[in-house]
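Problem: given the chain below (170 residues), write out its structure.
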Amino acid sequence: MMKKRKLTPKQQKFADYYIETGNATESAIKAGYSKKTARVIGQENLQKPAIKSYIDERMKELADKRIMGMQEALELLTSIARGEMTEEVIVTFADGYRKVNKTPDIKERLKALEQILKRFAVSENDELRNRLLEAQIEKLRAEVDKINKENNADAPPQITIVDEWADNDD
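Solution.
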């Protein structure tokens, strides 16, 4: 087993500055290397396995903290599909405007549901999943019909469902 080599304090400063700036020469200067040799030293440091490994590990840690993972993404999509989330929107009134919290509309909920379902393989042989999916779609269609009827029976529908994600043989 290969022993992991520790970085010198100057190498660690270089690596930390490099992660921050992405510029090897500037990082070498900030870490305390000579301005005359900073360009060469910066490039050499990026080639050293211990420094490269340190930079890669730190970048992965930072990405893991900042970038949404699959679990978090699915939880967010599920919350939208269920209509649990709200967003602040500005609504204009005759006397001015107000900020109000709005739940996702049917179109947004359908889109979130579509994104969730894309992540799960629904096989043609899986009758239970197909029936569940059809039931969810019918429930949403009924909600859309109700909204359209409540808005105005004589006007054209305000919301229309389009089966964009239906099986296509393209």
